[in-house]
Amino acid sequence: MHRAGGLFQFADFSGGENAIVDFKYSRDPRVTWWFDHHLSAFLTPEDQAEFQRGQEDGTQVMRKFFDPNYTSCTGFIAHVASTKFGFDTSGLKDLMYWADIVDGAKYESAKAAVEMEAPAMKLTMVIESAQDDKLIPKMIPLLTARTLQEVLDQDFVQVLVDPLMEKHQMGIELIRQRSTCEKGVITFDLMDEQMEGYSKFIPYYLHPDATYVVGLSKSKFRTKISVGTNPWTTKPVSELINLSVVCERYGGGGHARVGAVSFPADGEELARKAAAEIEAELKAAYRE
């Protein structure tokens, strides 16, 4: 999980096999598998150099994999599994299709993303909000063998859906009250609400003409700046700023169109200062 300072709980690297998936590279020798597709996959030049050495000398070429051209890490892993290890992914097409939509924000509209009618979107909400460590391991076997609707219909999933949808509606109203849009940039501050788990598409649902969003939120363990590009913007790609580069300056990262920066839980002022600087940079690049 993204947190200020150390990214990993190193005590978790135990046993014979340890995998990092869809997250930053670690030089810890106990990590035996790594898959990522983020532009900001390497925190330091030393990390990138070590990964490159393992690829060039062949020692890690079948263990550690990186390709930022993939929309989702799910799709990347599926490609590696099928082409390098002969794994049959034919039964997972629906899962892979929705993974690309969710990870790449490829929803047909902000309305579709926020109103969450598709089973996959409700499941995504449940997974992202999971508090019980046993929930996702319980869902994984079902996701490989049943339709997404059948997984959603499971009693242990359904009991979570209504409370989360209620919280989602509260999030829409709160961001409606707190957000402003100027020079194509939506800004809002939710740090006093301890509400980090909101849909990142809500700002675009409320301000469809915006290009970027800079949002502040807080949880028990971190203060966070979320930075995003409107997936439905009509601006040409040549005019858009690479947000992973912007976030990396503050110790964060992400993709070209979405990124984040984490600060300590008591780092509100640092976060506000950084958010104001990011906001000013995005507004300065704004064109009518």
Explain this structure to me?
This protein is of the alpha/beta class and 288 residues long. The protein has 11 helices and 9 strands. It starts with 18 loop residues before the first strand and ends with a helix.
Any descriptors?
288 residues, six-stranded mixed beta sheet, 11 helices, 9 strands, 14% strand
The order of strands across the largest sheet is 4-5-6-7-9-8
Topology as H/E string?
EEHEHHHHHHHEEHEEHEEH
Extract low-pLDDT stretches: none
Average pLDDT works out at: 92
Question: What is the molecular shape?
Answer: globular
Radius of gyration, in Å, reads 19 Å
Q: Quote the beta fraction.
A: 5-15%
Count of separate DSSP helical elements: 11
Map the helices and strands.
Layout: E1 19-21, E2 33-36, H1 45-56, E3 64-66, H2 73-85, H3 93-104, H4 110-115, H5 119-128, H6 135-145, H7 148-152, H8 155-178, E4 180-182, E5 185-189, H9 202-206, E6 212-218, E7 223-229, H10 243-248, E8 253-254, E9 258-263, H11 268-284
Parallel strand pairs: 1-2, 2-3, 5-6
Antiparallel strand pairs: 4-5, 6-7, 7-9, 8-9
Please sum up the structure shown:
The protein has 288 residues and is an alpha/beta fold. The chain is 42% helix and 14% strand.
